[in-house]
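The material for today's practical consists of a large collection of protein records. Getting from the letters to the tokens is the skill we practise here. To make this concrete, we reproduce a full record directly below:
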Amino acid sequence: MNEGEGHGMQPSGVWALKPLADMSAAEFHDWRALLEDRTGLVIGDQRRAFLQTNLSARMRELGVDDYGSYYRQVTDGPRGAVEWSTLLDRLTVQETRFFRHPPSFEVLDVYLRERTAQVEQRPWALWSVGCSSGEEPYSLAIAAAEALRDTPWPEHFGVTGTDISLNALSKARDASYGPRRLQQLDEVLAERYFRRQDDGRFKVVPNLAARVCCARLNVLELAKAPMSGMDVIFCQNLLIYFRRWRRREILNRLAERLAPGGLLVVGVGEVSGWHHPDLQPVADERVLAFTRKG
């Protein structure tokens, strides 16, 4: 139990209901500025309640009573960096599932199957940007494994998943999921790539999990990212949290990381009016996707 949590006297339920003071306009400004400066994430007025609820929950665990004190704690050098990482996990939780946007994976399947002959010379490199708890990178791995299944090179691919949340990455590496996350997954694929565990959860089979690597990356630091020459980049349900100019900056960085002929898939409606001289749109109105020229 953290110091101050329940003070050893009050029932935990009573402590959990103890109200915190409402966040002032100045405090909200400071917190949203900190989040945008460090992560690029934008907390608009409509998400003020979301921010306040998540901050309050963490502050109760620590026995901190006001937002200003907690702000100072989070920004206090190395000790603050540890707490910041913990808080970030609370603020970046995303609900996701396997093959979340089917049309995007249909486009991917066609793209990969047209290129199976090339994989002998160079294994495919696929990247899930903002991979959360791992459903998207494992979906990419399943798509690649299926495309190569009847070829002499069934394991000539690797998938990288990146996210800012250490907690999400831990879940991705564990590769164990509840049944609800597999709802959109074809039964044959579920049988082929997952094993049911005693607790009712489903674990990604080892030979597929071995082809997926998950690493921490802040998308504001894409310029430092080691990824290059990627055959496929998926960046879905991430850009909506950023300002328009930042979305375009991120996409420009990702475009630079594509191999010639590579495929970039973005969430539908997440960006408009963006063009890159080296990319051409995929002719499918159900998706927002581009291929690199050459």
